[in-house]
Every structure is written in structure tokens, then in C-alpha cells.
Specification:
By secondary structure, the protein is of the alpha/beta class. The protein has 15 helices and eleven strands. It has helices at residues 3-47, 54-79, 84-90, 92-125, 129-138, 145-168, 172-193, 198-202, 204-236, 307-310, 349-356, 378-388, 402-405, 410-416, 431-443, and strands spanning 239-247, 250-256, 270-275, 285-288, 297-303, 321-327, 340-345, 363-369, 391-396, 424-429, 451-455.
Length: 458
């Protein structure tokens, strides 16, 4: 690094670390504070008295798990509401992990609510569980139960289907479509909880508190998922200027518009792209920038891996674009060491290629591909390495063969980059490859806090 860069880096790192700590503190304070308020309102509503019968106690616990389950469902959609300060300072990958675990917690709480409620009411009514279920669903004694049942089924379907989709690696469109059901499930929960919920029906303060939670969540979703991207994209006049074939099954799309520097996009980040033509207007997909933004245009490079990405070569110049973002902290700002190693697998080279334009100093790049023909943007990578004094290693081989099996193993990494343990390492690629590479980097004596990963998938 130059002296100027060396002088600036510590302050930038401290500022970045402090901002992330502050964001995490505010987030957890809001999250836990609201959970504590919900429990307090539950206790204040007479649900934890000493004089409760066994049936009333079980029913009361059913109410608490239902309230916490509803709250977790609201948190679930807020986590991926694309709130800029939250995503930028905590990171999309980390929010995605939190989203996944919170989804499991939501399901557990909702199921506990159903089981405890049926059990508790059966004890109070002194009838069997099957009789209580029949009474709840068909007797008209408990209003809103049909709505609650449908909402519960939708939430269960979202969580279970998400696991199946991830394991079977089905198309992104299926993942996207299934998750839309979460909004319907939460809407139905409103009609079960607010108008007909037992203690909320009689406690105006608790009811107003819950209305506020639902309204704030709705405003965040509409504001950041719908209004902001539309206003931003049409304000900048985003459109496709050119579609360039980079190789077999690989195309680059150049997107132009007005005052693109105001997007504040940085190399290493990605957008959710929606192309407004007849075939693609309804679906948004994530793609990283494959070149550093210059204020005049943005570029993405896409490999044909599915119906959507495979059809992008047919996008016509002039097509209007809605871009949601930028997202991600896979940027120079996350750098904590003077020396850097950038490791890419497959199409994960796109954010790495953009970072090569942005990073200064001692930077080594490793690009892992199965065959020479898979090396996307190879000419640009070699040119950037020459012009910026970076070291570039192209590692080619099939990992299923004996010779390819040792490629980028801890020993091989140490051979390619003898001082790997002294570097801040960025790793990007398909999820399985990224996880394997990150493990090997750790085994090459790089502390986990100096490893930054970006799984090239949502």
C-alpha cells in the first residue's frame, strides 16, 4: 500500500467496526426490548397469576407462545426488508442466517401455540383433544379459528418448503414464490390475533401496541421493498444499454442511467435486478456488479444456471430496469489487514473482479475453475493484474479426480500463497464451494475474523 492508504486504513477500519457494533446494538435493543414488552403485557393481562387452574395455565402459555410466534413472524419479514442501514452494517449473509434461524423459531412457537391452546382448552372444557379440535373449528364458539388455521398452515408451508428448496436446489422462482405466502400467513394472523385474541380484545393498550407493530412492519416492507426501488430506479432512469456475450452461456449486461454515483454502490456489492419486459417483469434476481461502478454505468455478468439467468442474453437494449440495492458488505471497507487474498470459485469471480479495481497494496487473487473454458472474464483479470500489480493464480482441475482433489487444500494454499496466514481473505463462489474453501483457509492458519465470505446464492 502507499503511505496515504496506510494512513487512512486504520481510521476507516475503526469507523467501520464501530458502525457495525452500533447497528448490532440498536438492532438487538429493539428486538429484545419489544419481546420484553410483549411478555410484560402478557403478565399484566393476568396470565401468570397464582390462582390459575392447570387448564388455564396451559392455555395461558399457549397465548404467550402465540404472541411470541406472531412477533417472530414480523421480525422474519423485517430481517429481509432491505433496510439499507441494517443490511449495510450487519451484512446480507449474516441477516440471511438470522432469517433462517428465526424462521425455525417462528415455526416452533406457532406449533407450540396450537398444541398448548388445544390442550389447555380441552382441560378447561373437560373434553378430549379430538372433541376440542372439532369444537374450535366447527362450533362457532371460537371466532377466527378457520383464519388462524389457514395462516398457520401457510407459515408451516413456508418454513418446510424452504428447507426442501434449499436441499434440492430448485429454481429461484420457486423460492421466491413460496416466500410470498409468508405475507398472507401474517395477514391472516392479524385477523386472528387483533379482533378475536382473548386478552387483546379486552386490553386496549396491548391491542394498540400490536397494531403499531403490524403497521410499522407493513410500512417498512412497502417502503423499502416496493416504493424505494421503484422511485430510485425510475429516478435514475435505469435501462439496459448493451448485452455482451463473454463466453459459452455467459453474458454481461451494461445498465446506464442518470447520476448513478448517487446509488453509492461499491465494488463487491450486488443488486436485486428486475427487467421490465414481458417475460421477466414479475421476478427479481440477485447479481453482483462485475466491474467497479463509475457513475455512468453498472455491469453484471451472468452465467446460465437456470431459466432466468439463461434467458438474459435475450434482453433487448433499452429495456427498463428496477434495481434494489446495493447490498452486501463484501467490500474494501471490511478489510482488516494490509495483505489481502481474494479467492473465487466459478461465477463467484464477478465481485472479486470488481474488487480488483478497488483494492491497493499486496493483493493476491486465486480463481478456481474446473476447466480453462470456465474462466469467465479471464482477459480482464489478467489485464487488471498487470496494470495494478496484483498476483493472479488460475487454478484449473476437476475436484473429483485425484489430482484435482488437493487443489486449494490447506497445503496447496500455502504453496500458492506462502504468507496466507498474514492475509485478510475474501472468498466467493457457490455455497458448497465457498464453505469448503473457507474451511481450508482456516486450516491454513487464517483466523476466522480475517475470513470474509459471500455465498453466490440467496
Amino acid at each position: 500500500m502507499t503511505e496515504a492508504v496506510l494512513e487512512q486504513r486504520p481510521a476507516a477500519v475503526r469507523s467501520y467496526g464501530t458502525s457495525r457494533l452500533l447497528a448490532a446494538t440498536v438492532f438487538w435493543a429493539l428486538l429484545l426490548g419489544n419481546a420484553a414488552a410483549i411478555v410484560w403485557l402478557w403478565v399484566h393481562g393476568g396470565n401468570a397469576g397464582d390462582d390459575l387452574s392447570a387448564g388455564e395455565l396451559v392455555t395461558s402459555l399457549g397465548r404467550l407462545t402465540g404472541l411470541l410466534g406472531a412477533y417472530a413472524a414480523l421480525v422474519q419479514v423485517v430481517l429481509l426488508a432491505r433496510i439499507p442501514w441494517l443490511e449495510r452494517l450487519i451484512g446480507f449473509d449474516r441477516l440471511t442466517v438470522w432469517h433462517r434461524w428465526n424462521g425455525h423459531a417462528t415455526l416452533d412457537l406457532v406449533v407450540a401455540h396450537v398444541v398448548l391452546s388445544v390442550w389447555g382448552y380441552a382441560l378447561v372444557d373437560e373434553i378430549s383433544l379430538p372433541q376440542e379440535i372439532t369444537t374450535m373449528l366447527g362450533g362457532g364458539i371460537y371466532p377466527g379459528m378457520i383464519t388462524a388455521t389457514v395462516g398457520t398452515a401457510l407459515i408451516v408451508a413456508v418454513v418446510v418448503s424452504s428447507v426442501v428448496i434449499v436441499r434440492r436446489r430448485l429454481r429461484y422462482e420457486w423460492w421466491y414464490g413460496v416466500h410470498l405466502a409468508a405475507y398472507a400467513g401474517i395477514a391472516l394472523a392479524w385477523f386472528h390475533q387483533i379482533p378475536t385474541g382473548n386478552e387483546l380484545h379486552y386490553d386496549a393498550i396491548a391491542a394498540d401496541y400490536w397494531r403499531a407493530l403490524y403497521v410499522v412492519t407493513l410500512l417498512l416492507i412497502v417502503g423499502f421493498r416496493v416504493a424505494a426501488p421503484v422511485v430510485k430506479s425510475f429516478g435514475h432512469g435505469l435501462r439496459v444499454a448493451e448485452v455482451v456475450e463473454e463466453g459459452p452461456g455467459v453474458v454481461s449486461l451494461h445498465i446506464v442511467g442518470r447520476a448513478l454515483d448517487r446509488l453509492d454502490a461499491r465494488p463487491g456489492q450486488f443488486f436485486l435486478w428486475r427487467f421490465l419486459d414481458r417475460k421477466r417483469w414479475w421476478s427479481a434476481h440477485p447479481f453482483s456488479l462485475s466491474a467497479a461502478p463509475n457513475g455512468r454505468s453498472l455491469r453484471i455478468t451472468v452465467k446460465s444456471l437456470g431459466d432466468f439467468s439463461g434467458a438474459l442474453s435475450s434482453v433487448k437494449p433499452g429495456t427498463r430496469v428496477i434495481a434494489e440495492g446495493p447490498f452486501g458488505v463484501f467490500t474494501e471497507a471490511a478489510r482488516k489487514r494490509e495483505k489481502v487474498l481474494l479467492v473465487a470459485g466459478g461465477i463467484g469471480i464477478t465481485p472479486i473482479r470488481a474488487l480488483m479495481e478497488d483494492m491497493h497494496g499486496d493483493v493476491v487473487v486465486i480463481y478456481r475453475v474446473v476447466a480453462q473454458s470456465d474462466a469467465v472474464l479471464r482477459g480482464e483479470l489478467e489485464r487488471l493484474a498487470r496494470e495494478r500489480g496484483l498476483t493472479l493464480h488460475l487454478v484449473v482441475g476437476d475436484h473429483a479426480t485425484p489430482a484435482g482433489g488437493r487443489l486449494l487444500s490447506p497445503n496447496h494454499l500455502s504453496e500458492l500463497v506462502p504468507d496466507v496466514a498474514e492475509r485478510h481473505v475474501y472468498v466467493c463462489g457457490p455455497p458448497a464451494m465457498t464453505e469448503a474453501l473457507a474451511r481450508n483457509v482456516r486450516r491454513a492458519n487464517v483466523p476466522a475474523r480475517f475470513i470474509h465470505t459471500e455465498k453466490f446464492a440467496l
